Amino acid sequence: MQLAPSRRRARTALPTAVRLAAALALTPLLASTATAAPTATSAPASTVAVAAEPAVSAVLCNKHCDARDPAAATSDRVPVTATLYGRSIALHLSDNDVMGWASIDSGAAGDQTWLDRSFDGGRTWASGSKLGATATPAGRTGWRSQMYNVDDWNTGGIGALRACGKAGDRAEIACTGWARVDWNAGSRSKAAATALMMNYDRGSGKFAGWWTSATALTSLIDNIRISHMPSYRYAIANTYDKLRTAEGGDFTNSYLDDTGWWGLAWVAAYDLTGDRRYLDTARKDADHMAAYWTGKCGGGVQWATDKPYKNAITNELYIQLSAALHNRVAGDTTYLQRAKDGWAWFRASGMINSGNTVNDGLRDDCTNNGDTTWTYNQGVILAALAELNRATGDATLLTRARTLADASTTSAYLNPGSTLHEPYEPDGTGCTSDGDSFKGAYVRGLGLLNKALPDRPYSAYLDRQADTAYAKNRTSLDQYGPHWAGPLKDLGNGCQHSALDLMNAAEDS
What we know:
Glycosyltransferase; hydrolase activity; 6-hairpin_glycosidase_sf; Glyco_hydro_76
């Protein structure tokens, strides 16, 4: 797809483990033949040839150690099932024990069943293949494996299990969809945050990509604030420490919009933790952006250090970040003036079209280029105006923001069938394209505006979007794809953090 000019560049590669597994990712997650709880879309279970015997897996010990007798389970929940040659294969979870086991029934002696365990959302499971493999004894029509841990508390691994089975000596196997215990999944947003953390590379400090790691981290920080679930708070300092010297240092690089996303992430981190280093870094990011305010087209921050193009997203981020810093830096006048100047220029630039939606940027002759009205360009400006209103008390800013929000929430182009849809919504990207992250920025901005308005006019819209995505675009692991109205296709960071942004905004509305 042709993305906005601000997005025309090669993307950062996925973490190595994810990259190597990319070819395997969608088969187990989206193309198996399992049946699951009706509220989630999950695997219809695949029938494939038996894989080679796996390497011996390390024994994990949390509350209990692997290979525990299911008779000792404190509960038994069956979230996903599969069938093969009349056999019923089921994954059983004991939520309190944080363990699971596999069973096969309605079969015959010699049938086999086992568990697979994954720590990256079902992309790979080489280190946890065929756990507890067992066969139905003579004289029985069904059997079960021992219990195995879902998570690895020693390394912080967020796990998932699936049950697999094989009918006697037939070659085919079938597996259920992936599922996990209900720990850190007590609400829609908590469950989405836990699924997002399955994409997190603790070693590199990234989710996937550069600026999309910033937006994912912001989604996570927002969730900690909204849900009061602190389990993944460690990712804030880990990401900061691992990436502070990357790119241009202090989360700057040649793309000024990227720097803006990171600056806002560190403002959110400061708000949550009170750690001054995050605020100091956000100031460096804002100052880096301000250095590229130029006289072309009468002002505005250019898209990149070596590209004079004036676009919407860079300047929307600049306004929001500058206003946010004024609201947090005692005695500031500099950031406030930058935010005011940024809005005055943006308002007069012509990027807001006659329909009150925002096009991508300006032509060389400084007129609206008429490019696609990407959703993130409709959302970040709402957050920027809400933040600037907080800084100035100017009620006209909220009035203008409300006009823009009314236009985008009622746009048939952006909401076909009443569900938010990105123009040229991508498929086949593994949710790593820029566009996969755009809707998250939109609903985050809309949610911030909604909270700033006493009548909360967009709560119903946000609730409707969240209900639709939850019902039509979710796996049994609470992973989400790009199409909130369905069908469920790709899975990955951009789609997942966008869904988390949506659940956050709906719960906070």
